[in-house]
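In the current project phase, we have settled on a layout for protein records. A sample record is reproduced below.
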Amino acid sequence: MKMLLGAGLRQPSVERMRKNHGLEHATIHVLSECLRRVSMAGRSDRHGFTLYGNVSTEVLTNACERALKRLRSGERGLAIHPYCGTNFVTTGVLASVVAALALLGAGRGWRASLARLPLLICLMTAALIFSQPLGQVIQRDVTTSGDPGELEIVSIKRRRLGRFTLHRVETCG
């Protein structure tokens, strides 16, 4: 299984997506350091990433360039973000598996199910606690890369969708 996963992660398009995802997170970290109460969301693909949030193009461009420079200088931790969708999916999967296992064989009737409620609460709490570090490990090893390699920022374009601002960051390398 590990060999299969490793081979998949080395595919050029997957590797590019992981690098873009890492740069996306690093950019959000840099923006958070210089702007108070910045609210951003992002979505990466193999061609770059899109950031959703009200920030000027100039500030975002500077943050992207600083993030790339910091990743290149070895700040790999910038590629991990606590609010990444990977963490949410990890939490959802673990909580769902625990709930399904706890409810299996609960017996018939509402009393049997109610009797298992304390067990379900304990197992769900453990799943929620365990999912946080596990989600970060999955980010580090699977969904992002803190090593940008030859990744370069090609362009940053701003768009407005009603009252929402988004920026498309195109990359190559």
Observations:
- The two ends are 29 Å apart (CA to CA).
- Residues 2-83+144-172 form a domain with the Threonyl-tRNA Synthetase; Chain A, domain 2 fold (CATH 3.30.980).
- Helices lie at 2-9, 12-34, 57-72, 85-103, 110-115, 117-143.
